Amino acid sequence: MGLTKQYLRYVSSAVFGVIGSQKANIAYVTLRGGEKGRYVAVAACEHVFIWDVRKAEKVLILQGQKHEVTFLCPSPDGVHIAVGYEDGAVRIFSLLNGESTVSFNGHKSAVTVINYDALGARLVTGSKDTDVIVWDVINECGLYRLKGHKDVITQALFLKKKNLLVTSSKDSFVKWWDLDTQHCFKTMVGHRSEVWGMLLLNQEDRLLTGSADSELRAWNISYLEEGKADGEPRVKKEKTLLEDDEDEDEEVDESPEERILSCKKFGSILREARDRVVSLTADNKARVIACHVSNETSPGSIKLSRIHDKMSAEEPVVERMLKDEIIRLTNIKASAKIRWVDCLSCAGGELKVALLLQNNTIETYSLRTLNNTPTANKTARLTLGGHRTDVRTLAFSSDNLAVLSASGDTVKVWNRSTLQVIRTMACEYALCSLFVPGDRQIILGTKSGKLQIFELASGSLLETVDAHDGAVWSLCLAPDQRGIVTGSADKTVKFWEFELIKDQGTWSIQEMFCDIVDSTLIATGSADRNVKIWGLDFGDCHRSMFAHDDSVMFLQFVPKTHLFFTAGKDKKIKQWDADKFEHIQTLEGHHREVWCLTISPSGDYIVSSGHDKSLRLWERTREPIILEEEREMEREAEVEESMAKGDVPVVPGETQGEAAPAGKKTVETVKAAERIMEVLELYREETRKMEEHKYACEKAGKELPPPQSNPILVAFGNVSTSSPCLFIKIHSVCFFLVCLPACVVILSELEVSLLVLPFPYIPELLTLFNSYIQQGLEVELVCRCLFFLVSNIQWSPLQFLQREIESKEDVMFFADATGRLDEKKKKKRKRERAVLTIA
Ligand SMILES: *[C@@H]1O[C@H](CO)[C@@H](O)[C@H](O)[C@H]1NC(C)=O
Ligand SMILES: *[C@@H]1O[C@H](CO)[C@@H](O)[C@H](O)[C@H]1NC(C)=O
Ligand SMILES: *[C@@H]1O[C@H](CO)[C@@H](O)[C@H](O)[C@H]1NC(C)=O
Ligand SMILES: *[C@@H]1O[C@H](CO)[C@@H](O)[C@H](O)[C@H]1NC(C)=O
Ligand SMILES: *[C@@H]1O[C@H](CO)[C@@H](O)[C@H](O)[C@H]1NC(C)=O
Ligand SMILES: *[C@@H]1O[C@H](CO)[C@@H](O)[C@H](O)[C@H]1NC(C)=O
């Protein structure tokens, strides 16, 4: 290979193994005038999958980018679907071709609800950021941002009768908005807890709300006609009756200004379950409602956020509005916990119900609503294309064409080119796996210490061997390919030999012992986030590298190379060079912990699995990676990530945010400050060494050999700090050159970097600057820094103390720094004065 190795880029190629992600809802969609109730849209991590539930086939993928899908809503005409993402973005896709046509960016965090108006001309979005935004779909722009809620928006509905909007939130309020004037004219305070669901029923004469208590509240809406005095903007004080607990259910005090509608409680339904309502869903004709509740007594996991709470399997209760009463229809009991529900009324009184379950399954049911006591029949179940539980082991076949994935209960073999499942077989909880040479059998090592051998042609379990007393952690092929080596939690390593059973023509395995494998390097990853590279010749650790921001979960060499990949709990996959100890590339895509990966024998493909239930295929391209460029790109991406979202106006009349972009805590700023600190520390260290040397010489009465210079100084041509002339060379030129190509950025961000510099370094910096000026070196740069320091740093000892304390708490510190930067412009005059004083 020679001295220069060429690294090739791997890119994401496909996401599979996900049937439906838990973060977003499920929705019936129509495709090209196809049969009603045949297609459902669900999130699949960052994508949206459209499934044909009848054929259990994925028919369309709406490609996302980076962030997970959090909500989806088809347009009333069925042609488009609006998709909301974790980062607050909303994109509208055409269901005809799967292309994204429009995108809206106005929220700062996850979109929690989206609804179209009846004509499909406007869209309302609610978010975790507590804002509600109304968008004009036709002109592709924001119309109004409605602020007022204090917590996550849980529902937002347009009315048909009037230009009104009603919203609910976890802040326990339901708010009515007049869209003509964009103000909230009514706040309903009748709920004591979060309002989780809301429906408009009976031609918008009824509002039904579900909250964290066991009561479903029904409200009588009456529209007041005389209300709209022309041109007179209604300025209505919002009601704050929080203190008034007595009449919590009454809409009291219709103020004279409130001439649009009245909304009075007229009844409530006490649910049987006492747990909170997760959602209230109505069918397309608003005739049947599904109430979906959580059940806190079911075992939970801290991984789930509030909007992801669990629910009882016997919910939802499907109920119907009949006249003014809600009549119980039936219960649907799904085979796992339900995450989301959607209902669709079809011809002949048939109701279709689609359930997204918590174990990566979709189930559909059908019932006849005209019956008095209908029973819901299960019509479909989508399970084949993914695992119920997380995939813990993956393996490639020797011909690179098939890949196996095994979870807590099943092993699947996939066709790598089509990503279709070839085989699904029940197995024990698998932890490691491989294809037996010849690719006709697979072996799994299980949590219970067994080895299970399956035959692919028949899809049958050939043999189960009790191999170890503890979990089988790893399984690998012996170098001669005629056996395997297993490592177990029982602290033993066993060697097994394949034994060809002649009459059946299949392999069996037999325990045996053999010599250590021939190899030169071993790499290990661990929970301490480091990767260590060991030489097998002397068993020494060549290098330990900080690899991931969380535990390293998996590590594998690219066959026949010294390149390897690691997978981390930090959602990342990274590639490394074990000879040069270099980080080559980071593959990002998983939204949760990455458990394992497998690299094809050719090195061209990688498949990884994560806690987000996705399996991801990565492909090697022919594009070479230049490491410096790669690092630079990563840094830029990080900066973009860390920068607060620009407060660009989204809706008319919104003003631009005030934070000056230069004042942002960016990775560059922090790094530049760190470099300045490094230089100052080096200076301090070298000065100390020289003084000690001088003292030692004086004591000894003769010239002693000079102390060892810092390698950095040697590297730059033996410069010494006793000669500031050379030191500034490092500081302003070489130092920045080292950091190329960030050089330009650093110079432009120098001022901000100085602000980020902890105060104790500043006197030293000033001393240094002083000596440079004395020698007439780098005067321009030094003056620029000096003026900046003088005008921006408050010199009182108290300030000094405060800053010392704050420097221990980054957040405060940066906030402070930014604040002072904002004052920069105001101080411009002062700065000029400072120039004069110093000059
Ligand atoms: C709803 O309100 C209207 C107007 O106030 C009233 O006429 C009607 O009787 C009310 N309906 C119920 C069921 O309370
Ligand atoms: C929650 O679910 C469990 C099991 O399904 C059931 O026994 C229990 O009654 C439910 N709890 C409530 C409060 O409904
Ligand atoms: C998960 O889904 C499968 C198939 O849909 C179902 O049979 C099973 O009971 C579910 N398991 C759990 C633990 O919910
Ligand atoms: C559900 O199944 C029952 C019994 O198999 C049948 O009588 C009924 O018609 C089915 N309902 C629907 C909506 O298909
Ligand atoms: C995978 O699918 C392709 C295309 O259908 C087919 O040609 C190939 O034989 C399949 N491979 C395996 C291993 O099933
Ligand atoms: C640096 O200085 C040391 C001692 O002064 C000397 O031995 C060494 O050769 C010098 N290195 C270079 C690169 O000039």
UniProtKB/TrEMBL annotation:
GO MF annotation, one: snoRNA binding
Superkingdom of the organism of origin: Eukaryota
A Pfam family: Beta-prop_WDR3_2nd
WD repeat start-end pairs: 62-103, 104-137, 146-187, 188-222, 384-424, 465-499, 518-544, 545-586, 587-619
This protein's UniProt keywords: Repeat, WD repeat
Acidic residues bias spans: 243-255
Region spans: Disordered: 234-255, 637-665
Keyword Repeat tagged: yes
GO biological process: maturation of SSU-rRNA
Gene3D superfamilies registered for this protein in UniProt: YVTN repeat-like/Quinoprotein amine dehydrogenase
Record's keyword annotation contains Transmembrane: no
InterPro entries named among the record's database cross-references: TBC1_cilium_biogenesis, WD40/YVTN_repeat-like_dom_sf, WD40_PAC1, WD40_repeat_CS, WD40_repeat_dom_sf, WD40_rpt
Listed PANTHER family: WD REPEAT CONTAINING PROTEIN 3 WDR3 (PTHR19853), WD REPEAT-CONTAINING PROTEIN 3 (PTHR19853:SF0)
Name recorded for this polypeptide: Uncharacterized protein
